[in-house]
């Protein structure tokens, strides 16, 4: 019997984009169910009763929540295809560390830079640029974060790529100018069909940001 795979997601979600990239890299076919996170649907509540958030990956009726956990799950279940996480325990620990860094340090200023004003915006921009610099330093001259192979950390950060343009617009900075190695890395990642098909359109994200800014009272 074929696997039943369903993804509850919302089109602008950087977290859902990660899961879509991973599923595409593994060649996994799935049913996509657009799920507005502001509307707690019965299915979302049933499948993620603790956080009630997207994305939720449902595999044969069983829910897997949180995008980084989903990446590991996808890697282990469909293990006969492309490998997302390195097999070496040390390299695996480093990949988990940097993916965790992205969600714990990078995420907050990445949305505050477009959702806030005044001193809060200035502080968010300063913090975001520091984190971009840290991520660029870690990348160094490697093609990908794991070395020669596109993997876990690349997927974790490329989930944010569709939002980069909004960060630049409202934060008034240029990633290409300030972080050339990161820019080269993003262009390399964008050569992958899995990435291109998973990402939301950056201009559509900016339109969405304008709606959210009004909601947050930032314009």
Automatic annotation (TrEMBL):
Domain GST N-terminal per the UniProt entry, residue ranges: 3-82
Single biological process term from Gene Ontology: glutathione metabolic process
An annotated Gene Ontology molecular function: glutathione transferase activity
Pfam families per record: GST_C_2, GST_N
Cell compartment(s), UniProt: Cytoplasm, Cytosol
Catalytic activity: RX + glutathione = an S-substituted glutathione + a halide anion + H(+)
Domain of life of the organism encoding this protein: Eukaryota
Ranges of residues in domain GST C-terminal: 88-209
Major localization class: cytoplasm
Alphabetized UniProt keyword annotations: Cytoplasm, Detoxification, Transferase
EC annotation from Swiss-Prot or TrEMBL: 2.5.1.18
InterPro entries to which the protein is assigned, alphabetical: Glutathione-S-Trfase_C-like, Glutathione_S-Trfase, Glutathione_S-Trfase_N, GST_C_Tau, Omega/Tau-like
Sequence intervals crossing the membrane: none
GO cellular component, one term: cytosol
The family this protein is said to belong to: Belongs to the GST superfamily. Tau family.
Function of the protein: Is involved in the conjugation of reduced glutathione to a wide number of exogenous and endogenous hydrophobic electrophiles.
Protein name per UniProt: Glutathione S-transferase
Record lineage: Eukaryota, Viridiplantae, Streptophyta, Embryophyta, Tracheophyta
